[in-house]
Amino acid sequence: xxxxxxxxxxxxxxxxxxxxxxxxxxxxxxxxxxxxxxxxxxxxxxxxxxxxxxxxxxxxxxxxxxxxxxxxxxxxxxxxxxxxxxxxxxxxxxxxxxxxxxxxxxxxxxxxxxxxxxxxxxxxxxxxxxxxxxxxxxxxxxxxxxxxxxxxxxxxxxxxxxxxxxxxxxxxxxxxxxxxxxxxxxxxxxxxxxxxxxxxxxxxxxxxxxxxxx
Length: 214
Hints:
The chain is α+β, with helices and mostly antiparallel strands. The chain is built from 3 helices and 10 strands; from the N terminus they run ββββββαβαβββα. A hairpin with a 4-residue loop joins strand 1 and strand 2. Helix 1 packs across helix 2. The longest helix is centred in the middle third of the chain and has 21 residues.
């Protein structure tokens, strides 16, 4: 997936080549605010008063915030799977780590301070028939919690696992997150997006290492 550009906005930095900076911007009439919609494999970081919105099935999202400065961002990712439907340990670590590091690195570029970061994490549901026996949602949830613990970023809120998809609204300026569980499980668009994303993970190698700075 290539990066997509949008109109210039001082609230977020330009994406480096290979970054997946979400580019689907719209006006959300429910909350009367400019919003950015994230698809699987994308992330977004901002200092602006925006809503970051995504829908999660087996994937997970980390909403990471420097509350002191109102700088925050969200990612949307899944671990790579093998043919037997179980998480690939090496590939999963690379893809999961990349998804977390590229977001955190971008927050630092915007001025976030490492010691002020906190996280709220969501997703990892068992919602796709093809993934019901693979426990990929559980693997995703365990990975994001382990990663944040290792990095010393406190998790101040979570809504993980269960059997329902979730719609997430994250407001980085305030740190507020709203979660809506979608009780209708037959969401073909969500299932198709996650299947296509899972296929891409097994077809192409992850981008090179990301070097973080403080």
